[in-house]
Amino acid sequence: MRRLLCALLLAAASPVAAQDTTLPAVEAPALPDTDFVIVRIDGSLNLRTGPSADAPRLRRMARDTILRRIDCIAGSEEAWCEVETLDGALEGWAAARFLVPWRGADPAALDSPTVAPTERLEIEAPGRFAASVEGGEIFDLLLSVPQDQTIALAVDAPDGIGTAIFAPDGRRIETGQGAAAFSVVLLSGDVLLVRFVDTDGQGGMWRLDVTLE
């Protein structure tokens, strides 16, 4: 009986092994690191004056709106990105969890030839030409065309590749997405800029058939 009592007392006095209650660390979601981001939300996203849900709202941004990313910060409760509209008219902060990286080229590339291309090539019409653009790239084809003659251009490309045609003065003449056909007349001849732009980050092959009519 005495031995049993001693054993019970020793067991009661022995420290209980501490249980490890440490929870595994939860990694914070990666912040967008691309030059452009796209809004992904059911509804609209608030653009605010500062990185806080209490900051005044500037505007609601619709789903699929592309914005230029300025910076992103990881807050204690919410990560925020400083962004601006593509035309530069409005700048503000938006919750980063509703922004995803835009892997395509600068969206302005289809509107203005001032956006620098990744690659360019000078050729003479007519003919058949083919090349590829990688994700986020811009390919410029400088096409020498005869004076006062109709130029027919047929593009075969994936849906993620946009095409824009610019006059020598920089004016945009036509634009299309994926497979498209264009007809252009330059009264004075000169060089026609045919631009191929990756718009979804996937890239792909394109082919251009140029004929004189």
Top keywords for this entry?
mainly beta; 213 residues; five-stranded mixed sheet; elongated; 1 helix
Protein topology:
Elements: H1 2-13, E1 36-39, E2 44-48, E3 57-62, E4 66-74, E5 79-85, E6 91-95, E7 99-101, E8 119-124, E9 127-133, E10 138-145, E11 150-156, E12 161-166, E13 172-177, E14 180-185, E15 190-198, E16 204-212
Could you explain how this protein is built, in words?
Helices cover 6% and strands 48% of the residues. It has a five-stranded antiparallel beta sheet, with no helix packed on it. It starts with a helix and ends with a strand. It has 213 residues and is mainly beta.
Into which percentage range does the β-strand content fall? Answer: over 45%
- Major sheet, described briefly? 5 strands, antiparallel
- Shape, per Cα inertia axes: elongated
Number of strands: 16
- Distance between the amino and carboxyl termini: 115 Å
- Element order: H for helix, E for strand: HEEEEEEEEEEEEEEEE
**Alpha-carbon Rg, integer:** 29 Å
Low-pLDDT sequence parts: 4-13
* Strand-pairing-aware structural class: mainly beta
Oligomer: single chain
Strand order of the largest sheet: 6-5-4-1-7
Summarize the entry for a quick read.
The protein has 213 residues and is mostly beta strands.
